[in-house]
Design goal:
This protein is mainly alpha-helical. The chain has one domain (about 5-55, about 75-130). The protein has three helices and two strands. A two-stranded antiparallel ribbon has the order 1-2. Keywords: Bacterial flagellum, Cell projection, Cilium, Flagellum.
């Protein structure tokens, strides 16, 4: 049984991938805290709607002039974006605020731990269902 094919596990796996990529972006921000003209970077936020959309899905084709055009474009999970200039910018042009980056990293770590625990609980529930034959 491949858990990767189940919807919930696929969604949790995508969230964990996003959290891993965000951790890398935040780590780069902290590593470049003293680099002149470095601008902080972060990932596009992970939303449930974007997570459920699949880039491989077929797009509908309007066969009638009265059909409405779609409103959502193709979204990517790991699109890196430059964060707006914060209120605090160093004279050398660097806008990394270490306190903000550390808070984001701790939130990221807590989110990852939550998803990991949820993953474990789901696996244990499936094992229990298999053992009891239910």
């Amino acid at each position: 049984m491949d858990l990767g094919n189940l919807g919930l596990f696929k969604l949790m796996s995508r969230k964990m991938d996003w959290l891993t990529q965000r951790q890398e972006a935040l780590s780069q921000n902290i590593a470049n805290a003293d680099t002149p003209d470095y601008k902080t970077k972060d990932l596009k936020s992970f939303t449930f709607r974007d997570a459920l959309s699949d880039s491989r899905r077929l797009t509908p084709t309007a066969t009638n002039a009265s059909h409405l055009a779609g409103t959502r474009g193709a979204g990517g999970m790991a699109q890196e974006q430059t964060v707006r200039d914060p209120y605090e910018t160093a004279p050398d042009g660097n806008n990394v605020i270490l306190e903000d980056q550390m808070m984001k990293m701790s939130q990221n770590s807590m989110d990852y731990q939550t998803i990991t625990n949820l993953y474990k609980k789901q696996v244990n529930m499936i094992k229990s269902a298999i053992r009891t034959g239910g």
